[in-house]
Specification:
- The structure is a single chain.
- The chain has a domain of 345 residues: Kinesin motor domain (Kinesin, 3-Layer(aba) Sandwich), CATH 3.40.850.
- 28% of the residues are buried.
- Strands 2, 6, 7, 8, 9, 12, 13, 14, 15 and 17 form a ten-stranded mixed sheet that branches. A three-stranded antiparallel sheet has the order 3-4-5, with helices on one face.
- It is α+β, with helices and mostly antiparallel strands.
- The longest helix is centred in the C-terminal third of the chain and has 61 residues.
- A hairpin with a 4-residue loop joins strand 3 and strand 4.
- Helices cover 49% and strands 14% of the residues.
- The structure holds adenosine-5'-diphosphate and magnesium ion (MG).
């Protein structure tokens, strides 16, 4: 399956948006971000630092300033990646940055303005144009899925019930890597269809307003496009290549205090920050190269991006910045993240002939339907020729086959028509025949009617089969067929020129960066001096340079420390928030849930290492453990009902004066017990949900609960034995302790 197995680093590009109107009106401070497009450098000015402090410089694969066009970014940094996906590689583009810096603008842009369309619409256009221009022996199947990670749950944005159902589960397979189970996937035949899929998902996306961005995305969104391409290989067999493209629009990495959020929004922010810090940890671990453990499992986001970061994928990260001075800290953090991500090495390879290729299934089904259809048609044709008295011979030539197929279809239709006419005529002749008895006539007419019915049924079945066949076939896109834009040669040339220019710019930048590095290294070279004066001058220059470098490094160390302290404070704040919530839930558990119920629930807890979370075992009741109905108390005096007692005291002869047999009393008692247990069970279910939510909500759960075996009570005698034993689970009898660091 693997080909081209070589490693390549994650491409990191940085984009800075223009100052917003609100920021401009805040003061004349101007932007703090400067960009050198030629060198691919970002120069960041600290608005709080004295002018003597050196500015911070970061170098990336490409940088785009506030005047950059969507098209420039696409042609230069995204187009090569989409080309790789079309060739069968996995590809990921993700936008990372503070809220309101242009992640969604970069990924989606303004759909109605062709100049301002973002990466996603441009990628749609690119993919379908490529398919229409490819050779006619290629067959494509394009599928799209759309999901979001909201409050650490994966939601299928194409499922109309996604808000009501439980989050989807992540699974891992050696073939496809990490994938989402039961995710809706729509086959798309055109740009219009895939855009519609995107629109449906966008409407379902969780969006909430914060102070920093009115339409802030409150979730991480992932649009997944799978392009399967089948092409005959040199061995004559059809080979399938599968390229998967992840288009990721992350939620913002805002500071909670700055966004002015509270309540649910604060909870969202906490989750977003947590998953982003998990992403940061993964990036750090990968960039470091020395750490043996990469914490992919710390969040759903990092698990989903597992292949894109350090795995089988080509990845482009677009780090977005805002130029406003008040966001200096966040801008610096984003740049540091991006700078670290440059060091991540991926091992992309072409996915060839994977077992789960849907295209193969489609091809098989189409071939089956076609064979079925041909069989039917040829049978009709044969019959017609028998009627006509012609001999029928089948020609095996492929090219002629299609022409012949049409001919056969026509002939089959003709045969049906002729047969109908013939039967009609026969019917008429039978009706007019005066020598036949009425009974015989009826019989013959009946036979003909039956034949006509069969004929129609066969015809209907063939039509249904044809419709199914055509529907299946239409889902496969064939290269060279949709050649509307082939006519527009000029546009094609223009695109190629643009691509060439983009490639040239990229290479030029790379060379400039190389030269810069070599320049710096040249300082180290031994120099020869003609006079002492010259040596002093050269060494002073060198000293100055090194001193400036030292200052930069010192400032860097201070910054990193500050950042560390800041992020620790933030995490502490989040932890406090979560601990408070946890305490609140404990309070509910301690005060409203009977201890034996709590223990029963705790006994059912088990740790699922695949899912990396705590789950409940199902209650399985063996038949021997079934509760027995209480035996009736033999010998007791039969009690009478309250009503009967009252009626008796009143002296009326009441038909209600029935002394219930003890058996019945026992029955009622049993029902009461049952009712009570049912109520308890409902309470238990509610509690289960509550505890479950609390566990899922806090990834850092710290449970130290009493796990002594549950007390036996009269009503729950049998249940004590019914709880599964948990010797192997991490929840042994001493108590549960789940703690996680993030
Ligand atoms: P994010 O997704 O990062 O929270 P948005 O993409 O929603 O931010 O952008 C916030 C605002 O900034 C939007 O109104 C958007 O139109 C504008 N914007 C972002 N980037 C640019 C850009 N490069 N050029 C012009 N406007 C931009
Ligand atoms: Mg956004």
């Amino acid at each position: 399956m693997s080909k081209n197995k070589s490693s390549e680093s994650v491409k990191v590009v940085v984009r800075c948006r223009p100052l917003s109107r609100k920021e401009e009106s805040n003061g004349p401070a101007g932007g703090i971000v400067q960009m050198d497009l030629r060198l691919g450098q970002v120069i960041l000015r600290n608005p709080r630092a004295p002018p003597s402090e050196p500015q911070k410089t970061f170098t990336f694969d490409a940088v785009y300033d506030s005047s950059s066009k969507q098209r420039d970014l696409y042609d230069e940094s995204v187009r090569p990646l989409i080309d790789s996906v079309l060739a069968g590689f996995n590809g990921t583009i993700f936008a990372y940055g503070q809220t309101g810096t242009g992640k969604t603008y970069t990924m989606q842009g303004l759909w109605l303005d062709p100049e301002k369309q973002g990466v996603i619409p441009n990628a749609f256009d690119h993919i379908f144009t490529h398919i229409s221009r490819s050779q006619s022996d290629k067959q494509y199947l394009v599928r799209a899925s759309y999901l979001e990670i909201y409050l650490e749950e994966i939601r299928d944005l194409l499922d109309p019930n996604h808000g009501n159902t439980r989050g989807l589960e992540l699974r891992e397979s050696p073939e496809t890597g990490v994938y989402v189970q039961d995710l809706t996937s729509c086959v798309c035949k055109s740009i219009k269809e895939i855009e519609e899929v995107m629109n449906v998902g966008n409407q379902a996306r969780a969006v909430g307003a914060t102070d920093m961005n009115e339409h802030s995305s409150r979730s991480h969104a992932l649009f997944l496009i799978t392009v399967e391409c089948s092409q005959p290989g040199p061995d004559g067999r059809k080979h399938i290549r599968v390229g998967r493209l992840n288009l990721v629009d992350l939620a913002g990495s805002e500071r909670q205090a700055k966004t002015g959020v509270q309540g649910d929004r604060l909870k969202e922010a906490a989750k977003i920050n947590l998953s982003l810090s998990a992403l940061g940890n993964v990036i750090s671990a990968l960039a470091d190269g020395r750490s043996s453990h990469v914490p992919y499992r710390d969040s759903k986001l990092t698990r989903l991006l597992q292949d894109s970061l350090g795995g089988n994928a080509k990845t482009v990260m677009v780090a977005t910045l805002g130029p406003a001075p008040q966001h200096y800290d966040e801008t610096l953090t984003t740049l540091r993240y991006a700078n670290r991500a440059k060091n991540i090495q991926n091992q992309p390879r072409v996915n060839e002939d994977p077992k789960d290729a849907l295209l193969r299934e489609f091809q098989k089904e189409i071939a089956r339907l076609r064979a079925q259809l041909n069989h039917r048609r040829f049978r009709s044709k044969q019959k017609k020729e028998q009627v006509d008295g012609e001999a029928w011979e089948r020609d095996g030539d492929e090219e002629e086959e299609e022409v012949e197929e049409e001919e056969v279809e026509k002939e089959a239709e003709e045969f049906v028509k002729l047969e109908e006419q013939r039967l009609e005529k026969e019917n008429e002749a039978i009706r007019e025949d005066q020598f036949l008895l009425a009974e015989e006539k009826q019989k013959l007419l009946g036979e003909n009617e039956k034949m006509m019915g069969d004929l129609r049924k066969r015809q209907e079945a063939t039509e249904q089969l044809t419709a199914r066949y055509k529907a299946m076939e239409s889902k496969l896109l064939v290269g060279g067929k949709n050649i509307i834009d082939h006519t527009n040669e000029q546009q094609k040339m223009l695109e190629m020129k643009r691509q060439e220019i983009a490639e040239q710019t990229r290479r030029e930048r790379e060379m400039q960066q190389q030269m810069l590095i070599q320049d710096e290294e040249a300082v180290e070279l031994r120099e020869t001096f003609t006079s002492l004066q010259q040596e002093v001058e050269a060494k002073t220059k060198k000293l100055k340079k090194l001193y400036a470098k030292l200052q930069c490094t010192k400032a860097e160390i201070k910054d990193v420390n500050d950042e560390h302290v800041r992020s620790r404070q933030e995490l502490e704040q989040t932890q406090n928030e979560l601990t408070r919530e946890l305490k609140f839930k404990y309070l509910i558990i301690e005060n409203f849930i009977p201890p034996e119920e709590k223990n029963k629930i705790m006994n059912r807890l088990m740790f699922d290492p695949d899912e990396d979370e705590w789950k409940f075992k199902n209650i399985t009741r063996k038949s021997s453990q079934m509760k027995k109905r209480p035996a009736s108390a033999v010998g007791y005096k039969r009690p009478i009902s309250q009503y009967a007692r009252v009626a008796l005291s009143m002296g009326t002869r009441s038909r209600y004066r029935v002394e219930l047999p003890i058996k019945n009393i026992a029955c009622i008692t049993w029902n009461l017990i049952y009712l009570k247990s049912a109520v308890k069970y409902v309470i238990q279910l509610c509690n289960l949900a509550l505890v479950h939510i609390s566990m899922k909500a806090e990834n850092i759960m710290l449970l130290e609960l009493d796990m002594t075996p549950p007390n036996t009570s009269a009503l729950t005698d049998g249940e004590q034995n019914q709880s599964p034993t948990l010797n192997n689970s991490p929840t042994n009898n001493k108590g549960i302790c789940k703690s996680r660091s993030w």
